[in-house]
Design a protein that fits this description.
The protein is of the alpha/beta class. The chain is built from 18 helices and 27 strands.
Length: about 750
């Protein structure tokens, strides 16, 4: 459900050139929720394969979880300090929380409408059945009985709740059961043992003047949530909480179960390390993880139909208000649909495979050092495999001429081949220095584990900079060659994670450019040595020079437009939030600069406003791959300046993170990157156009349908096919064995 258009005022005040109105920003949180709505619209799109729609629905659920943990958690903390503080859009914290609650409830309602009225019925038609244990076959019933009593019952432990005892510390985002028992026990008075006739706990007369006990059953992670059931055809399943609820009486022999519901707690994850008081960063981050585990609840999801006594009990114990309570008409936590998306035997219900291609400039039979020495390489992932980046580091770990490897790691995979290669390099006696960002949210535990393992292998591990997150994507390999020391570099817009590189759209630049090498080394040593930042000749780094470089480049385009020259800015980013950058773009638009912005998620700029942003167009593309690359182009009088970056245009990236802006100067790389960037603005299939009020409208395509991600994939396949054919036309002889 999009944001409703702002009513037009009868009298429109024209802006004086250069003047900026007060109400020129969109609220960041509501803009993010609009992004999640676009993902939800994919789940509702009947033109997409059924299991892909299920996956998109799972993504919206996962997205909302993180939003509640981080953004709502942060706002609630702000509200405790000062609820009247206003954001750039003019909303107080209290107004934001109210608007967010309303929007989140609407999104959740739409999620379950899509699930209950569309996805589940259509999945059942193609023999993917969600079993109802109260109306299933004898065969299913017998299987469920065996599964519960053989695999589940012995694992779970009910926990009774008493007034004088604290509520158990339940796992955030886990699915739990809460059971209400009719009271008939001896011992401490249970919760709810006293009733007030003037204020009954339930609207149901049967619940009034009753005593009851409450029990929680944490379901944990030991038993899988999605449990297969026998079926004559296709795939049948039941969810763990449904199975346990069906046999709930078995946990309470001799007691009468009045009610059993599923519920789920979301805890505040906006718990930051106080680095000024943390003597040991790793210990401090472990404390943060523990604090997050015990933090206050910010949201409660529960089965719709729960009684008033049940909800009074849970909301009181968790200290939540009505707007924090979400009655769910279906299974809690839709991320189980990720598992369903991966079941075997239903390929026709998923996207056709798009196997990642090799890079046209990389010969698998040739050393990566030889390839890079021949010229810069630019790769567009995931259309081109991430393998060359991994192979470069793996080759470096074993190459006797490599003297040192310096790398920044922000997020990595669980079984990272890059981390393994770095450890091998250290074990082989190479000088390996790695900046591991322990403060990478939700990856802290994994990064702590990797940091310890690398230290044990002899890697010099640096835990970032006090007060900043190190988010730059750079790897420097120092190699001794016949003509001297050469620095081989990798710059990227995405993480060193070969798994996400298959589903995130990112850009890699491989080069041995000497000037970039000098800059990169100065940057890295400045971070690791906590030294005075050096003036970089080509790179720009946050929080020192990146903001100024961006503003200067926008200003140059503005001045050119004011002088009557053609001026243009094209940017592809994940988020646009920074008010200084937005104001600079407004002034550029007022001067006549043509501005094309592809912003995947949050955008606080209002495009298409008369006298303010008429020449600014903002689009967002939601497709099978997550758009993650940051690419920026400035026309610069016809001599286009082209950059890739690790940073979005947000205050956190420009002021509170260590980031890089990297120029792309090689002609072939520039041509490829510009072509890629402009392809996105030709999309007519998955493009959403931002309106001045922050709402988005899907672009209605004509006869010529262009799907940018498909165009990029087909283009890569065509180039690789030609290269393979050319390689097949050349004969290669085996080299004779060298004499021992």
């Amino acid at each position: 459900m999009p944001i409703k258009p702002t009513p037009k005022k009868k009298r429109k005040q024209k802006l004086v050139p250069g003047e900026l109105p007060v109400d020129r920003f969109i609220n960041r949180e509501l803009s993010w929720l609009e992004f999640n709505q676009r993902v939800l619209d994919q789940a509702a799109d009947p033109s997409l394969p059924l299991l892909e729609r299920a996956k998109f629905l799972a993504i919206t659920s996962s997205n909302l979880d993180e939003f509640a943990m981080v953004r709502i958690g942060s706002l609630k903390l702000q509200y405790q300090r000062n609820g009247m503080v206003r954001d750039p859009s003019g909303m107080t914290v209290a107004e934001q929380l109210q608007a967010i609650a309303s929007r989140c409830h609407a999104i959740v309602a739409r999620q379950y409408q899509v699930l209950n009225e569309s996805l589940e019925p259509q999945l059942a038609e193609v023999d993917i059945q969600h079993i109802d244990l109260n109306a299933c076959s004898d065969r299913c019933s017998e299987a469920a009985d065996a599964r519960f009593h053989e695999d589940v019952f012995a694992v779970l432990s009910p926990q009774a709740i008493f007034d004088e005892r604290p509520f158990p510390l339940l796992q955030g985002l886990g699915v739990h059961l809460c059971v209400r028992l009719n009271s008939s026990h001896v011992g401490p008075k249970p919760y709810g043992g006293e009733t007030n006739d003037d204020e009954p706990n339930s609207a149901n007369p049967a619940d009034q003047d009753e005593e009851w006990d409450f029990v929680v059953i944490p379901l944990g992670r030991t038993v899988p949530r999605l449990l297969p059931m026998p079926s004559d055809r296709g795939h049948a399943y039941v969810l763990l909480e449904e199975l346990v609820a069906h046999y709930i009486d078995d946990f309470f022999p001799g007691r009468e179960v009045a009610e059993c519901i599923a519920f789920r707690i979301t805890r505040n994850a906006d718990v930051e390390l106080r680095e000024d008081s943390a003597a040991d960063l790793m210990v401090g981050m472990e404390d943060v993880l523990e604090s997050r585990r015990q933090s206050r609840a910010v949201r409660l999801e529960y089965s719709a139909g729960a009684s008033n006594p049940m909800m009074s009990f849970l909301s009181e114990k968790l200290e939540l208000r009505s707007e924090d309570l979400f009655a769910i008409d279906g299974p809690l936590d839709l991320t189980y649909l990720f598992t369903l998306h991966g079941i075997e035997g239903f390929d026709s219900l998923r996207d056709e495979p798009w196997p990642a291609q090799g890079s046209p400039d990389v010969d698998p039979a040739e050393s990566m050092f030889t390839t890079i020495a021949a010229g810069d390489l630019l790769m567009v992932h995931p259309y081109e495999r991430f393998d060359p980046v991994v192979r470069l580091i793996e080759e470096a770990s074993a190459d006797p001429d490599v003297l040192a490897i310096k790398q920044v790691l922000y997020r990595t995979s669980r079984n990272s081949p890059i981390v393994a290669a770095l450890m091998r390099a250290a074990e082989h006696g190479k000088y390996v220095s790695v900046i591991v960002e322990l403060k990478a949210r939700f990856d802290e535990a994994r990064n702590i584990e990797w940091a310890r393992e690398m230290e044990q292998a002899g890697v010099q591990v640096i835990y970032g900079i006090r007060g900043l997150k190190t988010h730059a994507k750079v790897c420097i390999i120092v190699r001794r060659e016949s003509h001297g020391i050469v620095r081989y570099l990798h710059f990227g817009t995405g993480n060193y994670n070969e798994v996400t590189a298959n589903i995130y759209s990112d850009v890699s630049l491989l080069t041995c450019n000497e000037e970039l090498g000098i800059d990169a080394t100065s940057f890295f040593n400045c971070v690791t040595g906590a030294s005075e930042p050096q003036q970089l000749q080509h790179l720009a780094s946050a929080p020192i020079t990146l903001r100024k470089r961006i503003l200067d480049l926008i200003e140059i385009e503005t001045l050119r437009a004011q002088a009557g020259q053609r001026a243009e800015i094209i940017a592809k980013l994940n988020a646009l939030v920074d008010t200084q950058v937005i104001d600079a773009l407004y002034r550029a638009s007022q001067a006549g600069v043509k501005i094309l912005l592809n912003i995947r998620g949050v955008c606080c700029l209002k495009p298409g406003v008369e006298g303010l942003s008429e020449s600014i167009k903002v689009v967002s593309i939601v497709d099978r791959y997550l758009e993650h690359a940051r690419v920026i182009s400035f026309r610069h009088g016809g001599e286009v300046e082209l950059y890739i970056s690790s940073a979005d245009w947000m205050p956190r990236n420009l002021d509170r993170r260590v980031e890089l802006l990297i120029p792309v100067d090689d002609d072939s790389c520039r041509k490829k990157l510009l072509e890629t960037l402009r392809t996105y603005f030709k999309d007519t299939t998955n493009t959403w156009v931002m309106q001045p009020n922050g709402a988005y409208q899907r672009l209605v395509s004509g006869e010529d349908k262009v799907r940018s991600q498909k165009v990029l994939y087909d283009r890569t396949c065509k180039i690789m096919k030609t290269i393979k054919q050319n390689r097949m036309t050349r004969f290669q002889t085996h080299e004779p064995r060298s004499a021992d």
